[in-house]
Design goal:
This protein is α+β, with helices and mostly antiparallel strands. It has two domains: about 25-35 and about 220-350, 3-Layer(aba) Sandwich (Pathogenesis-related Protein p14a); about 40-210, 3-Layer(aba) Sandwich (Pathogenesis-related Protein p14a). About 35% of the residues lie in helices and about 25% in strands. It has ten helices and 17 strands. The strands form three sheets. It has a seven-stranded antiparallel β-sheet with strand order 4-5-6-7-12-11-10, sandwiched between helices. Strands 1, 2, 14, 15, 16 and 17 form a six-stranded mixed β-sheet that branches. The chain has a four-stranded mixed β-sheet with strand order 3-13-9-8, with helices on one face. Helix 6 packs parallel to helix 9. The longest helix has 25 residues, at about 220-245. The chain starts with a helix and ends in an 11-residue tail after the last strand.
C-alpha cells in the first residue's frame, strides 16, 4: 500500500512541477494591435487651411539624400545588398546586414525609403540614440501634416502617443519618421520616406481630398514570400534592439519558428472564421506539445502593423511586450508571420535541455 502511496505522491509532484513551469516560467502577452486601421482613410469633401507639411529644406548629407534617387547612386556608396526581398507594397526591400545596417525600399529603380536603427548610420540632421527632448526643442512638430501629390491632399493626424514615439517631420518632397524608445527617451530608428510611399503605408490616421493612392494586394504566392521576409527582418531588428540595450543576441530556432507560424495562422483564422472554435491553446501548452520544455519562455504577438519595423517598435513601447523582447535570459527565438499577424517566441536554453535543436 505504501508503494502505491509513494507513486501517487511522485505523480502529484510531477503535475505540480509542470503546473509551476506553465504558470511561472512562461510569459504570454495579449496580441498588440496597430493603433491605425490601415486601409480605412476617410475621404473629405473639402479641405481647410493647411496646418503643416510645407516642409523644411531637405538635408544635404546623410542617408536621406538617396531617397528619390536612382538605386545605382546608393550602390556606389554602400555596395550590393546582402539580400533583396519583397514587400506588401510592390517595392523591394534591399537589406544591408553589414555596418551600417539598413533597409532601403526600391521601386522602378529608385529608392523610395530608407530605414536604419544602426548607431553608426548617418541620419542627419538626427542621430540614433539622440535624446528626444532635443528634437522637441529644435524641430517643429505638428499634430496634423498635409501631403500634397498632384491635386490630391492627404492629411495625417498624429495622436498623443504618436507625438511621443512616432514623430512625423516634413521636408521638401521627403518625410522623416522618428521611432522613439519611449522608456529611454531616445531615437531608436529613423525612416526617410517619399510622399507617395508614406500615403500607401498610411502609418497614421488619415483623411484625403481627391484620389486615394493604394498598392495592389499581393498574390498569395507573393504574400507568402513577404511573410518570410518579415520573419527575417523581425529577427534582425530584434537583435539590433537587444544589441543597443547591451543584451545577448538571440539565435534562431526553426522549431520555434514553425510553432510561431502556426499560431499566426490560427490567429487570422479565428478572426475571419464564421463559427466558434475551442479555447485558444496557451503558449505553455503549445511548447509542451512539440516537446519543448525550456527553463524560461515568452511570446509576443501583434497584428495589423504594416511591416516588421512598425511591429518591433510597437513591442518595444508596450511595457509587457518590452519585458519579453528585452529579457536578458532568452537565448533563442523563432518568428512566424501570416499576412499581418506576427508571433515571436522566445526561450532560454541551457546545456541540460537537449530537446532544443537548431537546424
Amino acid at each position: 500500500m505504501w508503494r502505491v502511496g509513494w507513486k501517487i505522491l511522485v505523480l502529484l509532484l510531477i503535475v505540480m512541477g509542470v503546473y509551476y513551469f506553465m504558470t511561472d516560467k512562461v510569459s504570454e502577452n495579449l496580441p498588440l494591435e496597430s493603433p491605425v486601421q490601415h486601409g480605412s482613410p476617410i475621404a473629405v469633401p473639402e479641405k481647410g487651411p493647411s496646418i503643416g507639411g510645407e516642409g523644411m529644406p531637405r538635408p544635404e548629407e546623410g542617408m536621406s539624400v538617396h531617397v528619390g534617387q536612382k538605386v545605382e547612386k546608393m550602390e556606389e556608396q554602400f555596395g550590393k545588398p546582402s539580400r533583396i526581398e519583397p514587400s506588401s507594397f510592390q517595392y523591394e526591400w534591399w537589406v544591408y546586414t553589414e555596418k551600417p545596417r539598413f533597409m532601403a525600399g526600391v521601386l522602378n529603380g529608385k529608392v523610395n525609403q530608407i530605414y536604419t536603427a544602426d548607431g553608426v548610420s548617418d541620419v542627419a540632421p538626427f542621430k540614433i540614440g539622440q535624446n528626444v527632448q532635443e528634437i522637441h526643442r529644435f524641430t517643429p512638430i505638428e499634430s496634423e501634416i498635409d501631403v500634397k501629390i498632384k491635386e490630391n491632399i492627404y492629411t495625417f493626424s498624429l495622436n498623443s502617443e504618436d507625438i511621443k514615439n512616432r514623430i512625423l517631420i516634413p521636408y521638401e518632397n521627403l518625410f522623416v519618421q522618428l521611432y522613439i524608445d519611449q522608456v529611454d527617451g531616445v531615437i531608436e530608428g529613423v525612416r526617410f520616406i517619399n510622399p507617395s510611399t508614406l500615403v500607401k503605408h498610411q502609418p497614421y490616421d488619415m483623411t484625403y481630398l481627391g484620389e486615394m493612392i493604394e498598392a495592389p494586394k499581393p498574390t498569395s504566392t507573393v504574400q507568402t514570400e513577404v511573410d518570410r521576409a518579415m520573419e527575417r527582418q523581425t529577427f534582425e531588428l530584434t537583435n539590433q534592439v537587444r544589441e543597443e540595450h547591451q543584451l545577448p543576441l538571440l539565435s534562431y530556432n526553426d522549431k520555434l519558428a514553425t510553432l510561431s507560424r502556426k499560431h499566426s495562422q490560427e490567429m487570422i483564422f479565428r478572426k475571419y472564421s464564421s463559427h466558434e472554435e475551442g479555447p485558444v491553446e496557451v503558449f505553455a501548452e503549445r511548447l509542451k506539445n512539440v516537446g519543448l520544455t525550456p527553463s524560461k519562455a515568452g511570446e509576443n504577438t501583434a497584428f495589423n502593423y504594416i511591416d516588421a519595423i512598425e511591429t518591433v517598435h510597437g513591442w518595444l513601447n508596450s511595457p509587457k511586450h518590452r519585458e519579453v523582447l528585452l529579457n536578458p535570459n532568452f537565448t533563442h527565438t523563432g518568428i512566424g508571420v501570416y499576412n499581418k499577424y506576427y508571433t515571436q517566441s522566445f526561450i532560454a536554453q541551457t546545456e541540460l535541455e537537449n530537446s532544443i535543436h537548431d537546424d
